Amino acid sequence: MSAEAALIITQLLNGVQLGLLLFLVAAGLTLIFGVLDFVNLAHGAFVMLGAFISASIAGMLQGVPGGWLLGVVLMLPLLALLGMALELLLARPLQRAGLTPAALHLAQVLATFGVLLACSAVAMMIWGTQGMGVVLPGWLRGQVALGEAVQLPAYRLFIIVIGLMVALALHLLLQRTRLGMQLRAVASNADMAAALGAPVDALRVAVFALGAALAGLAGALMVPIAEASLGMAVEYIIIAFVIIIIGGLGSLKGSFFAALLVGMLDTLGRAFLDDALAAVLPLELAETAAPALSSMSIYLLMAAVLIWKPAGLFPPPTRGRH
Amino acid sequence: MSRRQDRVQDGQPVLQVRGVRKAFGGLQVAQDIDLEVRQGTVHALIGPNGAGKTTLLAQICGEIIPDGGRILLNGQDITTLAVHARARLGLARSFQITSLLNGLSVFDNVLLAVLGRSASPWRMWGNVRRQEPFASQARALLEEAGLARRADDDVLALSHGEQRQLELVLALAASPALLLLDEPMAGLSAAESAEMTQRLMQLKGHHAMLLVEHDMDAVFALADTVSVLVNGRIIASGPPEVVRANAEVQAAYLGEGMEEQPQSRPPA
Predict the structure, then answer these.
(1) Has residue A21 got a pLDDT over 90?
(2) Taking the model in full, what pTM does it have?
(3) Count of domains for chain A
(4) Is A107 among the domain residues?
(5) CB count, 10 Å around CB of B102?
(6) Residue A199: which residues within 8 A CB-CB, separation 6 or more?
(7) Which domains occur in chain B, in start order?
């Protein structure tokens, strides 16, 4: 295999890895929006808190075998509790305030943005402005050889495996289980689902718990690559919204493919755009244009998709509310 | 007529509404409402638009909580219970506008209705579409309604008639003690409306029904008891013939021509 081919394969795998990480962020957001019609900007705060909390636990358990993994696993129920609190203390009172649908969405945006800012302030008081890293266990630190020329860091492969497992589990949960069927019923028409006996209030709490835990997982998995930092909260809420808009608001399948698309575009843009531009533009111009273009690329993709398909790639069926 | 009359006092009361009051600001939408639906009978609730029929139904099924009074289902006080809890106790309703779970298949709609009353949602393992006895019950209900061949279609692909039929299947799926029917004839042609009346006739005796309907042919064909709601008050209640003859009812609601339809119907 030529060196070029190996480089391209490596970058493709990096794109898949980034895409699956972004899917974990977007999945919780699209689930909460799709099932409950709730716009949750606080989702970004959950990503950041998942990162800091898992890193803190791992720090306390330094030297204990499996400490890092334990930090990730113990963080999940804490984030689920935060999600439940957000539903009970904020989402539910707003839902019952008797607002029109448009006013309700605006109220959700304002209230959850407040929660995002408050979480950032609290995180700064607890963890400070410095980033926070973790020590990975040995089995995740090495390289894994795929074929002769392609080598991938074991941790990136680990993220790919976890991302695919979560995607499969969510798919089975929604399509095959009793809980998933009732969640899809609530997404379609909450009043009707309640009339058929679905416990809508309990399901709302469960969706918030699941969404927050998924965001926390994404945050925790980012720490070994980029450290836990305060900036994560805002950075990932924006990119997650780009993804769920491209995929179709409320569609899990849509957010999966949109996240892969965004991850791939971002990675390949950074890796190859300067060379590609140099082929058609003067070298100097290409070298200035490439970084600017690649940081804009996902927004250009979103604009292009919205022109082509205004409801996103896989819009969910129309809601039947009345 | 006489056969129906005999049965009026037969059953135990399934639904009892006692002194229910509700006001929105200064507007009294329910004033000391008393109403009873007995086992195996149809109780029709009629009245002009804005009389408070839909608000009363909403209080019975739990979307609105009354300011005062009590609502009992099979003797159990359900006045403040949540919608889904009432559904589990055997209260089923059909909506004024056709209400199905769009985006889900016909089979999934029925399966949800079958699961709804008895099954906890938290069972995570196993394919829900193969869980017995629910899956077989759902298949049997579709078979019975003649919708089996549409089982895998999205409900949006059904015709209007098929959708109303499916809606009734959903309401009946949990073999409810009480069926609340909110204008089941709305939007149906004369022929479809007669067909629906026939179907409700067949169900009569198996389920207690509270029927809100503008179609007087259907009301007088089906009802054992008719209550007339005007401005949030029940001004008359009794066997259809008696209510039909009541002078106050005629003045307040039915107008001079009893046989005239209060609501015009689209042609077949």
Answers:
(1) yes
(2) 0.79
(3) 1
(4) yes
(5) 19
(6) A182, B82, B84, B121
(7) 1-90+176-268 (3.40.50.300), 104-172 (no CATH)
